[in-house]
Design a protein that fits this description.
Helix content: 40-55%
Structural class: mainly alpha
Largest sheet: none
Radius of gyration: 18 Å
Number of domains: 1
Distance between the termini: 52 Å
Order of helices and strands: HHHHHH
Length: about 130
């Protein structure tokens, strides 16, 4: 939208069609090396909440269907020519940009679930399932 010089206020977020969490994660995974040991674990939202996992802060794109961000319309931007690219492409370019940042910037990430908390939540889930 900025490149086209279209005046006005637009909600210019994507994707064009709503993605499930699985579609989003697998789309991001498609941009990464196949040599990485990445596995997804699908835990109920209520269990995550019980473990103190917070939406947006620790699970940066996790929000409910009734969350206000889910209701934002991008139709005005689409009508004005907003275009979208594949999630894997956005992921690759974002990672390339991030790797160009100074080391202190890279070390200063504040979003995402800490590795030790992730391990504790997964252990609690395994215990819950083994029950």
């Amino acid at each position: 939208m900025a490149e086209s010089g279209a005046p006005g206020t637009y909600n210019a977020a994507g994707p064009r069609a709503r993605l499930s969490m699985a579609e989003q994660l697998y789309g991001i995974r498609a941009a990464l090396s196949g040599n990485l040991d990445l596995r997804f674990h699908w835990l109920p939202a209520a269990f995550l909440a019980d473990q103190g996992v917070s939406a947006w802060q620790e699970m940066t794109t996790w929000f409910g269907v009734n969350d206000p961000v889910s209701a934002v319309s991008i139709e005005r931007a689409v009508a004005a020519g907003l275009a979208f690219r594949p999630l894997a492409e956005t992921t690759r370019e974002t990672l390339a940009w991030f790797r160009e940042q100074p080391a202190e910037r890279q070390a200063g990430l504040r979003a995402g679930l800490a590795a030790d908390k992730e391990a504790a939540v997964l252990a609690a889930w395994r215990a819950h399932v083994a029950g």
